[in-house]
Amino acid sequence: MRCISFPLRKRLSFSGNVNASAIALGDVDNDGDNELVIGNIQGDLCIFKYNQPWRLARDLGTITSIATGDLVHPGKNALICISAEGFCHIFDLQNHTYDQSSDMVMMTPNLKLPIPVNISRVLISDIDGDGQQELVVARTDRYLHAYALQFLNNQLSPIPKPMSIASAPATESRPMTAVKEVRERTVTSTSTQLQIQIPNKDLAMTTSYQGAPLSAVSASSPLPGDSSSAAETMTPVSPGLGGESLMPLAPRASLFEKHQWLFSGQLGALATDGGGVLYVGQPGGQVTAISADGQTLPLDLRKDATLMETTTEVLIVGEKDEDKAMDMVCCTMDGSIQRYTLKGNKVIPGNAFQVDHPLFSLQSVSVDDNNGPGTDLQVACAWDGTTVIFNEQHAVRFPFKHRVCAFAVGQMAMQPGRNEAVLVYVTFNDEVLVYHDLKLSKVFEGETDFWSLLEREGRTHKDQDKESQLHAIRQALYQGR
Predict the structure, then answer these.
(1) What is the pTM of this model?
(2) How confident is the model at residue 304, as a pLDDT?
(3) Cα separation, 229 vs 141, whole angstroms
(4) Alpha carbon distance 229, 326 (integer Å)
(5) What stretches of 171-213 adopt beta strand conformation (E)?
């Protein structure tokens, strides 16, 4: 496999051990520019905007998973941070603006909701076709849950206009802070459990149609019997950039469990086709599909008894074509990568190849090329840093030389107004390295000898004297591309 290099990178400042799922790329403040979000097991959550630390939250517990999506407001992203201790922190940053002259600012979550412990994966998607985004979480004890975020009277309350510290009365000399912490309470309700018997003995499924909601009361809503004044409970303000505040999303909110499944094997990656089907990675390269009505269907993929202890990463590529077929890519810890075509109830094996590295992450990135925007490339990363970039016909390798604890690939704004494809590596040495200006649309171009490459760039040609050729080589290698 041909090796490639990416010479341009940025080194970001962030320390602490990072879980493999505690990293995300997304537009957390809804300004059109994507940010990088990283959380560590010490409870620190940092948002990097334009390669600089922009927002920081502390004491969030052992952060295991991070996601961005429109879980709260339709069409508007929120930041979801889940801890192993059983809390889901929701940050809404759409009222925040970027000021290049300001330093990093501390933030606090808008909502802190109880959730089951030991969550390892998270996905935000409408998996049942009801028009509302669900929070799908996988746990290390093989349970899979789907939650809906519910507010008072089943309606989303509008976000109040932020109160600026600068607009406070002149007599107020101390900084304004949140006057009440988020307080949790569990709401007990009856639940109806329906046991569904399915032929596959390897998978036991329990679907909860009316579960007990996991509820919390935000700082903006007094508990019954609370004697605090309305002024105190309705205007929590946390110090922000230029006097901004993180305002509560709604007076009351809860995570209502819509579905629950129990699997026989450890849960791998979660993926969705955007049409109401959820795909769950199972050990040994196996994948189980879950339909919009909650029914499960183990896909007929490869079976290898020697791989039953290896986790499976699964990725849905593109959208359904005219024949209602779509591609799925799977990779396992043994270094195997397999492509399938899903058409109806049929699973058609496609190209496959093997690498000698333990793969732990499989993601997709959309790049611009000569065929127009939206071309998908798949990227797999190993624990030793080896990164494989591939599509249906080609594959190349980027030999990152450090051990990796977390990896992300996607679109990120390195400067205002322009998102570009990046590779993000978090190492075990407290380093965050962002490779940019990747030119991914050219990574599969045909093999070219060195002299032809120099001639194509107008640097030299073969009949020049040796001194001129050496000068051109120095320029090409050490003076940039």
Answers:
(1) 0.75
(2) 62
(3) 44
(4) 57
(5) 183-184, 192-196, 203-210
Residues 6+ positions from 258 with CB-CB distance below 8 Å: 128, 134, 146, 147, 148, 208, 209, 211
* Rounded Cα distance, 129 and 259, in Å: 13
DSSP code per residue over 392-444:
SS-EEEEE--S-EEEEEEEEEEEETTEEEEEEEEEETTS-EEEE----GGGTT
DSSP label at residue 453? H
Q: Which residues pair with 290 in a beta bridge?
A: 278, 296
Structure tokens at 94: 């759409």
Buried/exposed 408-419: b ≥16 CB within 10 Å, e otherwise: bbbbbbbeeeeb
Residue type, 238: S
Contact 265, 125 (CB under 8 A): no
Contacts of 382 (CB under 8 A, 6+ apart): 335, 355, 357, 358, 359, 360, 404
Structure tokens at 64: 């295991």
Q: Edge-to-edge, what's the strand order for the sheet holding 76-83?
A: 63-73, 76-83, 87-91, 111-114
- 52-57 and 105-106 beta bridge pairing: parallel
Token pair, residue 164, equals: 């600026």
**Could you read off the pLDDT of 131-170 as tens digits, one per residue?**
899 999 999 999 999 999 988 765 444 443 333 333 333 3
SS3 label, residue 6 = coil
Give how far Cα 475 sits from Cα of 64, 436, 467, 471, Å. 45, 21, 12, 6
> Using a CB cutoff of 8 Å and minimum separation of 24, what contacts does 443-452 make?
443/4, 443/377, 443/389, 443/396, 444/391, 444/393, 444/394, 444/396, 447/2
Contact 81, 109 (CB under 8 A): yes
- 37, 27 contact by CB (below 8 A): no
Identify any residues that bridge with 107 across adjacent strands, giving them in sequence order.
none
> What is each CA distance from 64 to 15, 19, 80, 139, 335, in whole angstroms?
15, 6, 11, 10, 24
> Using one digit for the tens of pLDDT, what is the confidence trace for 413-441?
999 999 999 999 999 999 999 999 998 88
